[in-house]
Structure formats: structure tokens, C-alpha cells
Amino acid sequence: METPAPPGPLLVLGAGYAGLTVAQQVDRLARGSVPIVLVDRHPVHVLRTQLYEVGRLAAAGSPDSWTVPLARVFERSSVECREGTVEAIDLDARSVRLGDGTIRYGSLAVCLGSVAAYYGVPGASELTHQVYRLSGAIRLAGALREVEAGSSTLPGERRPRVVVVGGGSTGTELAAEIATSDWSQVTGGPARPPDVFLLAGALPFLDGLPPSLVRHARLLLRSAGVALVPGLNVTRVEAGRVHLEDGSVLAADLVVWCAGLEAPPLVRALGAPHGKGGRLAVDPTLEVPGRPGVFAVGDVAEVRDPSTGMLVPATAQAALAEARVAARNVIARSRGDPPVPFVYRERGVAVALGLGRGAAAIRHVTVWGSPAALLKRAVQREYARSVERGQPSTLL
User: Element (H or E) spanning 388, and its range?
Assistant: First the structure.
């Protein structure tokens, strides 16, 4: 028999994929026996994996299609939603300080997500756009609309040039979206298709994804008009200029940074074991070592699968799977039962590659083109529906 968690609510920090699912699952499984407080800076859940859709966002003019109000998600639950900014976490005192007060907790789920990692590259944080946050995607959509409504600011160039830094899924999907969006329809007037460069950096393009998917992604990017530049890291960003490590310089109207993620500063400052990018290194039960009942879930955690010894990828699919196990373990701790280890099982992966195209791998089978795009869209719709139902998605 384990020692039960001390009195107090389950405090969930962050209403992203991980935090929302932890709160939903504990509420469903505990049937009111575990009080839950969910804290987020905003009153909405953001469909973050869809923020690459900057063409649609620019055309819509409103972010409503990319958000779900928390009040609607939890209107028939016992979850208390509290809007606020987390200022400090005291693991010894088992308390969290918000801008308007302090909350003591019995169990804690740290689900604060991640922020862009700039790796000390001069000018990167100040002079580039990003789509890791809704606010960043909105700013980029507005900037693209302005550029497309005018003309390139580059000498001798008639078409706008957009440089996307980072050859992972986010950068790839974003580059294809920008290259294939109907900007004439977005701006309501004549617009020239942009030149899009995707700087993959020193890591392999779409590193970690199945080779067959990567091969088809290269072909579809090329047909979408995206120029893939592999093998070179960015060393400096200036206004309208990107410097590469071979000494070359690439001019650009807009630069978007998708080169990687790290834990937020608040998490990096915690007195706990950390992994790559300041993520919290967790036990197989997803708990912070030496802190029973304190869980780190999603992008904020470095999770090692005990069955394989490999690090679990920082994806929405993994975050949702981790959240379901963390919820079970919150309840186990509340009852004095032993928690269970997290074992990751990859269902598959789908990458959007422009209007009506994509590449996907499911159980060693690769599909591409319109079938993969339809699968990607179905996954996105299913997840949005599952958020409001409070039930886990059955797709990827």
C-alpha cells in the first residue's frame, strides 16, 4: 500500500493537450472524489498542432476555429477553471503562486508546454516569427497578408520570399502551407505566390520519421514549390537577412523560426532533475523523482519509455497518451495504490504538405497525396470533437 497523497486538490498547470486531458480524465475516473483546479493564462484551449494553417488563419481573420472555450469543455464537470499566470512553483511547500494569489495542492500536474528554442542565435528571438503559440500564428498570418498584398521588399525580387528555419514537422507543414495557400483569395486582390525556403539545419530532414514518409515528403514539398536547404544551421538573423554557417546569406521578407522547443523558464528554474532543453526528467510513472504526486506531462517532460529505453517524442499524440496514464496515477496516489509505468505505443504519424496533400505512416504502411491529407484532416477534426466530449481520440 502506497502512502496516499496529502490533502488538497489536483492542481493542473496549463490547458494544452496534456493539461486538458489530465483534468478531463481525472474528473471522469474519480467521479468527484478528487477536486481539480485547472490554471491557464487564457480562457480557451488552443488546437496547437493546427497553428501551421496560417493561410486559413489569414483568410478567416478570427482565431475562433483554432480555440475551444474552457467553460464549454468543463460545463458539466467538477473541474474549476482559473485564469491566471503561474509565477512560481514551490515543490517543498506544495504550493503554486499565481499573479492573484497562492494555491496549495495535494497533487500537481505540470503541463506548461514549451517555448521556442533559439540556441543563442543572435537576432533569432527578436527578428523572426513563430507558430508555437496562437498569438505568434496570428502575427505571422497578418504579416503574410501584408507582404502578399504588396510586393517583395527585396531588391530585384518581384515575389515575396519567406524563409522557414527548422526541418521538423512544424517547419515542414508551415512551409508547404505558405507555398500553396491561395493568397489572392486571402488578400482579395492580386498576389504573387511566395518563394519559400525551408532550412532543415544540420539534423536530417523530418528526423525520426519513417524513411518512406520522408522520401514522399521531399517529393511533395518540391512539387509545392518549397526549396529545401539541408545541412546548414543558421548563425545569425538580421533584418531581412539570414546568415548560414557556410558564410552564405539568404535575403528574406519574413523569417519563421521552427527550429526546436525547450521548457519554459519557470520550469527550467525548478529544483528538480532536468533533461534536454530544460525539460523535467520524470520517473516511469511520469512523476518528478523524489516528488510522489507531482507529475510532468507533455512537452514539458523528458519521458523515457521503460520498454525500449528510448526517449518518447514531444508530440501531441505522446502528450495525450502520457496524460491518460498520469490521470490514472493521480487517482492511484489519492487512494494509496501503486502507480503504473507509462509505455508508449506509436499509432502512426501524418504530415500536411500543402493544399490537399500529405504523407502518413501507419503500421509500416505509407500513404501520400490526397489520402494522407484526408487522414490528417480527420485526425484534427476528431481531436477537436474529443476535447468537448471529454473522451480520448481514437485516431493518431
Answer: helix 370-389
